[in-house]
Amino acid sequence: MRERIPQLSLLTGIFLLVFTAATFAVTSLLFLVHIEITAANLFLALAATVAILWFGTKVYFSERHALYFGISLLASTVVFFIFLGVSGSFYDLSYDGQTYHQEGILRLAQGWNPFYDKPLGDQGVPYAIWIDHYAKASETIAAALYAVTGSIELSKVFNFLLIAASFFLSFSALAAILPRRRGLAALFAFMLACNPVSIYQSLSFYVDGQLGSLLICLTALGVLIYFRPKWPVIIAYALCITLAVNNKFTALAYAGILCFGLVLALYVTQKHGILKKMLIVMTASALIGVALLGFNPYVTNMMKYKNPFYPLAGEDSRDVVAAFTPTSFMTMNRFEEAAVSYFSQSEGNSTKRDETTLKPPFTFSLDELKYYGIPDTAIGGFGPLFSGVIVLALIILIMAFLFNVPRTMVVIGLLGILLASVFINYAAWWARYVPHLWILPFLIALLGFSFTERKVIRGLSWLMVGVLFVNMAMVTVSYYKLQAEANGELKAQMQTLKEAQQPVTVYFSYAYSNKNRLEDYGIAVKEVKTEPKCDSLVELRDSGTLVCTSAQ
User: Fold this and answer.
1) Which residues in the chain come in under a pLDDT of 70?
2) Residue 198: strand, helix, or coil
3) Measuring CA to CA, which residue among 532, 439, 504 is closest to residue 219?
């Protein structure tokens, strides 16, 4: 029984991850042969995932594998439907979500093939530059589910599926590292999965939270490959790479450095057999992910703009961070910016911020918590107590170095790889752009707990874990509380509009996809291109949408 729970956790995590990745892979392969998205895409991906789970279960359970297959499938199904219900209960109120993410999902579901069809920019679609040229795995899988359900909000379920996958896979990996401390492994896995970026983007169509979960999955699978390199884990690792590199451009660098870390670990410990296999798997996964499944945007951008990362690089490139960077950061390097950000009072993104406000570690104000109700907390984005966590982590690291240099140097090497994957991004000060930085304190906590004979360092490790947990809880409670309040107000407004004389006059401002939202709610819409003037003007909560219920 002691081994069965981590193995069941592994299989459940693999199912959730592979189902998400397979949905993207199936849809992209069908795009290549000129087949648009239909409900069949999701069911083809589900069939492939069930087959992998069936044969994977036989690898880990030589006896009664049908029973354990059923348990893993049931657990995955329960997770899916619970979070499907949660996703459908909330509207995405984020700016990017209501501008180009939802618009991209709707266009894909309506038959647009990004591999061959005319770019949306040539069709006059607003914000099309981001839809046409960004990596779009998130929008693709969301569109596949939308084709089945007819409700776009339900498609946010993939945020939660990847959070859950990161929990199950992390628990299995940590159980391999801490075979006698399953409770600690479960606690660490839960806290890793509840990455603040993943949490405060979970009810939106932002993609950074998904990337954070994918990078945690990739790290956990790397640990499992190091200890127990069996084919279900290797397949999941390969699919995780293909999905990650099509989530965001930066994932190519992040995943590449994390893969290098696994290669280095296998080489140093002379595991040459699995090293050769993984080099082939990594290379093939990256090539397939970029050139085949990622034909749009990587190949199409290269063909048209001579740069696969357009519009973030190359001629006429756009810096999407500069306008939101505090002017005080202009004289700092990326390391100084990150230090100042994570040791400052939490703030949302703003184009008018001159400087940040430093605060003592372990302190916070209630006013800071309101910034965790949005998906892009810019300053202090890992939580109001994260600076205190960093201080404790540094103390633990120094003490560990004094107690055992060789053991500590191994962890420092791992930290170096992680930090290299973080600071390769010049915007490392903004948490949502480097969500995997969340892994750092857990590596140091594992080091601290390894000193079983040293009570002080273990006590400090428990203190850091406690601060991390409180920090995570503050972000989580703040986010869902504020989202519930905002959604409650919006739903009340929608109900009022539904009872008004139809059609209502609507100016969508930046949120053009809200036309679909209003029509789904049973509200007839008369769209206008300029702000309407009337006595009954209503601005929908956090939607940039103005509605006039009186006659125009």
Assistant:
1) 1-2, 551-552
2) helix
3) 439
